[in-house]
Amino acid sequence: MRITFTVDATLFDVRDPEFAWGHSTPIAVTDPTLLKMYGNLKCEESLIPYLTDGTDMEVAIFQVLSGGYLEYRFLEEKGEYIAVTEYSAVRDLTSKELDVLKEYTHSQWLDGVGEAFQQEYAEQTGYWPEVDMCAEVRVDIAA
């Protein structure tokens, strides 16, 4: 079973030396060239290991998953910028397990692995990828 969670995202330009978090509004990148250059990226740290710190159900889910990497993708043909995490499971997950995994993934995107990755990437490049915290998380399940 392959489980893919997708959500809208934005790439911000934070290179301006006058920019300060909490005091300035970052500028969203809309230029397709910049989105192609700086927007397609993958966090090398999987979200999966942190499931062991959670509930009994999260620990049970941990035992059947692989993958779990946060990626940002610019879909040039659609003009969309998204965040994606794909998991493979050795068995079908129940609807409750899927709901728990969806909520867990969303929270890791916003805090934890996702936040650490955003900060590191921004320090290296001057661009900050960010998940739209209010957008609906889409779920795709394939055999």
Key structural traits:
4 helices; 143 residues
- Tally the beta strands: 7
User: What Rg is obtained from the alpha carbons, in whole angstroms?
Assistant: 16 Å
What profile does the largest beta sheet have?
7 strands, antiparallel
**Overall average residue pLDDT:** 92
Class from helix and strand fractions: alpha+beta
Number of helices: 4
Task: State the helical fraction.
Answer: 25-40%
Hey, roughly how much beta strand do the residues contain? 35-45%
Shape: globular
Compressed to H and E, one letter per element, the order equals EEHEHEEHHEE
Uncertain spans: none
State the domain count.
1
User: Kindly, what is the distance between the CA atoms of the first and last residues, rounded to a whole number of angstroms?
Assistant: 5 Å
Protein architecture, described:
By secondary structure, the chain is an alpha+beta fold. The chain has one domain (2-142). Helices cover 30% and strands 36% of the residues. The chain is built from 4 helices and 7 strands; from the N terminus they run E-E-H-E-H-E-E-H-H-E-E. The chain has helices at residues 32-38, 56-62, 95-110, 113-125, and strands at residues 2-13, 27-28, 41-46, 65-75, 80-89, 127-131, 138-142. Strands 1, 2, 3, 4, 5, 6 and 7 form a 7-stranded antiparallel β-sheet that branches. The longest helix has 16 residues, at 95-110. It is globular.
Task: Please write out the topology.
Elements: E1 2-13, E2 27-28, H1 32-38, E3 41-46, H2 56-62, E4 65-75, E5 80-89, H3 95-110, H4 113-125, E6 127-131, E7 138-142
Antiparallel strand pairs: 1-2, 1-5, 1-6, 1-7, 3-4, 4-5
